[in-house]
Design the sequence.
């Protein structure tokens, strides 16, 4: 029989990268992203274990673990900003990016472009950040993004279109 | 100016952002270590490791489950165990025949009214909205089952079943009016309530029957009430035909 720990361990493996990247793109600091991501999974595990204990009640299981983890992460990010009393954190810290390319010049260009895009995303409002990260980076279909945002698919498509427009504006300003 | 495709491509490059591998491994370990520190002790920890454990565990578990079901039976909308109560009701209704389903739903509607009464008596204001919601859902289910009855059964059989549920339907309606009136709530208007369907069916059946003068009078009144939209009164009159007063 599979234990809750084994199940959650698999969930951890499946989502650690996505949640870390989601948090990192919003807070811009590797150290902060690591702390918040670790807290997200700790809280997620505590809730998961409580609901999947010996005699789970009908309707008590977590229906969508992905949405659940993202929601915890969002709440922790909001707490982080409330505590720090900052709207945007532009991190001067260098965050190593794993990149298969070996050409130094290409890597430098890529890093520079990526830094611009990362900063531009951080200046977007939360819903725009979320829809861009979930659909374009995490590759989630619109239906899943809609579910995470608790909106209709049509509303999500409109939001995505506006998010891209807003991002274009930010990138244009940065250039 | 960057087009959407270019922006998408730039954004997708961010997929290369990954956490440090050693951090991932360490964090996983810490999460489960942390969980061990706050692990709650259960009574099973104190049971010696004899075969006795295998007797006591099912006995204790059964008692707990039985206790939970008993508490669930008395729960109200908004309570933690209410969903279990609803699940138990659904379980009981699962194997009911089609002709008995309207009666079962009416019994459940009665149960919902009992819950509303208890909420009012104990002044549990926060549970009022969920309880009213539950009542509406059950009434909708009554309406559906009555409608299915008329659609799917031959007329003669439908009339026979309708006569059986008409009395219960009248009682539930009267109780609903009283409970809602006590709460200062106007009953919601419904253009096609269950009593309309039943009254219509019974009026149609009565029109084909041979009636004495008194019965003909009741039928006339029933039709007048029906045409004016007073379906409860129409039902009341038509029941006098089926269940004559001494």
Sequence:
């Amino acid at each position: 029989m599979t234990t809750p720990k084994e199940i959650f361990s698999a969930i951890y493996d499946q989502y650690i990268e996505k949640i870390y990247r989601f948090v990192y793109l919003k807070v811009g600091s590797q150290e902060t992203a690591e702390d918040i991501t670790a807290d997200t999974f700790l809280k997620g595990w505590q809730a998961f274990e409580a609901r999947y204990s010996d005699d789970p009640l009908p309707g008590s299981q977590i229906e969508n673990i992905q949405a659940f983890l993202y929601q915890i992460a969002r709440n922790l990010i909001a707490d982080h900003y409330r505590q720090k009393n900052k709207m945007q954190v532009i991190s001067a810290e260098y965050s190593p990016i794993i990149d298969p390319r070996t050409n130094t010049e290409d890597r430098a260009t890529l890093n520079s472009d990526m830094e611009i895009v990362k900063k531009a995303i951080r200046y977007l409002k939360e819903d725009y950040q979320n829809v861009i990260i979930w659909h374009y980076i995490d590759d989630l279909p619109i239906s899943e993004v809609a579910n995470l945002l608790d909106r209709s698919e049509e509303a999500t498509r409109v939001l995505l279109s506006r998010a891209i427009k807003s991002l274009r504006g930010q990138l244009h300003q940065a250039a | 100016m960057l087009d959407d495709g270019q922006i998408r491509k730039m954004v997708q490059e961010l997929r290369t952002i990954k956490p440090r591998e050693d951090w991932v491994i360490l964090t996983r370990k810490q999460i489960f270590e942390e969980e061990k520190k706050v692990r709650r002790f259960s009574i099973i920890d104190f049971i010696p490791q004899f075969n006795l454990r295998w007797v006591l565990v099912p006995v204790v578990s059964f008692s707990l489950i039985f206790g939970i079901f008993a508490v669930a039976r008395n729960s109200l909308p908004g309570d933690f165990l209410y969903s279990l109560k609803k699940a138990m009701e659904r379980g009981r209704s699962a194997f009911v025949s089609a002709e008995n389903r309207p009666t079962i739903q009416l019994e459940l509607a009665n149960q919902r009214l009992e819950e509303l009464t208890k909420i009012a008596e104990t002044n549990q204001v926060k549970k009022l909205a969920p309880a009213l919601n539950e009542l509406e859902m059950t009434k909708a289910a009554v309406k559906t089952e009555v409608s299915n009855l008329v659609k799917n059964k031959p007329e003669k059989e439908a009339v026979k079943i309708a006569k059986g549920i008409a009395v219960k339907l009248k009682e539930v309606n009267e109780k609903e009016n009283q409970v809602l009136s006590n709460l200062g709530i106007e009953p919601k208007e419904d253009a096609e309530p269950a009593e309309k369907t039943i009254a219509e069916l019974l009026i149609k059946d009565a029109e084909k029957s041979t009636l004495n003068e008194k019965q003909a009078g009741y039928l006339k009144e029933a039709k007048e009430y029906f045409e004016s939209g007073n379906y409860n009164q129409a039902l009341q009159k038509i029941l006098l035909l089926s269940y004559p007063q001494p």
